[in-house]
Amino acid sequence: MPATRPSSALGNYARMPNIKVFSGSSHTDLAQKICDRLGIEPGKVVTKKFSNGECCVEIGESVRGEDVYIVQSGCDEVNDMLMELLIMINACKIASACRVSAVIPCFPYARQDKKDKSRAPISAKLVANMLSTAGADHIITMDLHASQIQGFFDIPVDNLYAEPAVLKWIKDNIQEWRNSCIVSPDAGGAKRVTSIADRLNVDFALIHKERKKANEVASMVLVGDVKERIAILVDDMADTCGTVCHAAEKLLEAGATKVYAVCTHGIFSGPAISRINNSMFEAMVVTNTIPQEKRMKNAPKIQFQPQLDGSCLDIETTFHVDVQIAVGAKAPNLPQTSDKTL
Fold first, then answer.
1. Do residue 213 and residue 278 come from a single domain?
2. Which member of 68, 182, 270, 304 has the lowest number of beta carbons within 10 Å of its beta carbon?
């Protein structure tokens, strides 16, 4: 019998037929949270490695005719996690799953979205091709680094947004948010911060940066006024954190009273933890698209707040709209945490 969802979230739509959710190795906690909200148990799957490092996946239950969702974020050992996801997709597809959706909260290789120098690869397009070839019928992701990646696919892509959750966090946690300035650490994030600033009815600024090489910033120029204001840096990802930490110093030099950083994807690789511990901002706030428990223990400034658990709600909404459309029923009114039109 199909599992049921809690009536508080679903109302009269108590059944969720033919849905199975499997988790890869990257973020089992997020997959469990999604299943808890959907009122179902995670699918049985065993993931392991052979002694030579090859991934091995065993799907532990029938998926014939089922609508399968596989949750796997692009974090930590990114290449292994990607390969594991591809194998899981293919295993479900050749086991006669009706449809396979890949839930990839943090999309791997998203920064390699264009040919910006001679002989450079467009790796994000290659990943898109690999996912389609493996058998994915649908992609669900969150805050793509470059929105044009959606066009790399010939299958449906839902790019969900953390913006509504970020707005709620700012209003709930920064008492003087009306005297704030939303700042983009680079020109590429200007559209993101202007949207947030408009909704809060505050000013925005951006920082123009010149790089010596990847992950190493040479100089920064602040465009905008942050004097005697709280500066809130907003970005889609924080990796080595060189940019955001230098940006915090620049903002304080320009007269900002406090600096916060809010990022969707907290990758935190290389020297990121030590940089955050020595940084000038009040807090580095992230969503749970990537597991953060270990990093939060090593860097007290890293915070995950329930308001930024938006990925669960968005994915939940996408799941259920898919199901209701499939059976020809009206979708219920679920909590909205994204501007994504489903």
1. yes
2. 270
Grouping H, G, I as helix, E, B as strand and the rest as coil, residue 102 is: strand
Average of per-residue pLDDT across 312-318: 51
**208 is a domain residue:** yes
Within this chain, do residues 40 and 114 fall inside the same structural domain, yes or no? yes
Distance of CA 224 to the CA centre of its chain: 28
CA distances from 1 to 17, 18, 324 (A): 8, 9, 18
Name the residue type at position 202. V
Q: Print the domain residue range for 120.
A: 7-161+309-327
Dihedral of CA 110/112/113/116: which sign?
Answer: positive
pLDDT for 203 equals 96
The one-character DSSP state at 106 is S
User: Rg of the Cα trace of the chain?
Assistant: 21
Residue 340, in any domain of the structure: no
Lowest mean pLDDT among 225-234, 301-310, 317-326: 317-326
Contacts of 54 (CB under 8 A, 6+ apart): none
Return the CATH number at 260.
3.40.50.2020
Q: Check: CB of residue 264 under 8 Å from CB of residue 289.
A: yes
Q: Are residues 149 and 173 in the same domain?
A: no
- Rounded to whole angstroms, the maximal C-alpha distance in the chain is 62
Cβ atoms of 133 and 115 closer than 8 Å: no
**What pLDDT is stored for residue 8 in this prediction?**
43
Tell me the pairing of strands 138-142 and 157-160. Answer: parallel
Kindly state the tokens that stand for 268: 């935190």
Same domain? 167 vs 157: no
